[in-house]
Amino acid sequence: MSSLTSSSPSAGGSPPPAADDPTSSLLTWLTASGCTSSVIFPSYLPHRTSLASSPIPSDAPILKVPFKCMICPPNCLRSPKDQLGITLKDMWVTGQLRGDTLLAFLISREVILGADSDFEPYIRFLREIEEPETIEVWEDEELEELKDEVIVKRSRLRLREQSGMHKRVLAQLSSHTPSLSLSPLTLDLHLWSWRILQSRAFGRRLPWTSLVPLADCLNHSNVCVRYKLEKDNEIVNPYEKYTHDPESGDFIMYPSKGNSYAEGEEVFNSYGRRSNSHLMLDYGFCLTDNEWESVTFVQRLYRPQEVTELYSKLKACLNRAGFNVVRNLKLNRTTFQKGLMFCRIVNLTEEEADELIKGGDGDGIEKCGTEKIECDVISKSNEVKALHAMLALLNTFDTSALEEDEKLLESEEVEGRLRAAIIYRTERMRIVKRAVDMCEEMLQRIERMESM
């Protein structure tokens, strides 16, 4: 690994940063602090990317960021001199503020400190780059383009939750230190800090949720990556002052499980197994062909006004198969058969239900006794009813615009939030259309068998 560099622009790419540009200032600060990296950032080819400056084999460091450059509670609150910092530290060590809530207010504090912040180059970089394009900042007409009422409701709920959190913490701060001026801690600043945290922070493998400069600039892909603090096993109590050997204890990121990068190849981080709705809410983008994307349908066994013996038997069969009478089917590449199994059970005749419950030698029914049942094909008539029921459920999701949207994505004129919205809804339509095609193909196969 070497010190940090940025590449020259390619034809059609963005111009390189000036010396006083926030990106250049950030890289200069990180280099002076001892950061080393095997990536060139930003590449301007033509978008902001991080390219491997040399081959990076699996388990070799991508980058090493000194601990002192990380925005996290022990760094921000080691020796605060301002009243806000002193108050936040006391609330941290006494457990009154923790986790993401604490970090959001620490980020806001660093913004308020301005030139007095130990992280000023990093904060200036974060403030002057584009704000995270999470859908919380989208206009109503832009949200409508997603064609998903659930994610829109979740976005609006998150705004209300953050407004409530902001009010609660301000009340805590005021109660703790009545003389503390709260006017700089505006709701707008808090929302910005929260979006920065949600879109850039590391936390799962660290003692504290942290912002890690440069590491947070890698784009996302579904690749294998791991990161750690060197000697983090020496940290006994994350609420105590962090002391470590300056030559170790720093943040290191590696490609793992065979993942590697050739020289000049874009280097990615992985934010985990994230559906597109999660990516849109927390990061402001979504992926084409996202293996973790799903579409949720509600499946249910309708309860008659007067409970019949058949209803009781169907409910028993569902329970034996591991289903509740109402369930969410998260349809993706692997859950189609589970959804179809539910449809088979709720369309059983009384005789078929009896046979399934006792685990007899019925047509296609496995012997199950008291074991959990696996409901494969039961009978031709049941399979037809189940497939039609599955189709009826799937057809509640409109896929009629799929072909038109796929053509729109081929156009370079469609960009920004509209492009993200079209990718989001197109991926959902593809999942449903794939399942519809499977149902129709299975029905056609049954028809061909009957005609033979």
Automatic annotation (TrEMBL):
One of its GO terms (molecular function) is protein-lysine N-methyltransferase activity. Residues 315-431 form the Rubisco LSMT substrate-binding domain. Coiled coil: none annotated. It comes from Triparma strigata. One of its GO terms (biological process) is methylation. Keywords: Methyltransferase, S-adenosyl-L-methionine, Transferase. InterPro entries: Rubisco_LSMT_subst-bd, Rubisco_LSMT_subst-bd_sf, SET_dom_sf, SETD3_SETD6_MTase. This is Rubisco LSMT substrate-binding domain-containing protein. Pfam families: Rubis-subs-bind (PF09273). Residues 1-13 have a biased composition (Low complexity). Residues 1-23 are annotated as: Disordered. Gene3D superfamilies: Rubisco LSMT, substrate-binding domain, set domain protein methyltransferase, domain 1.
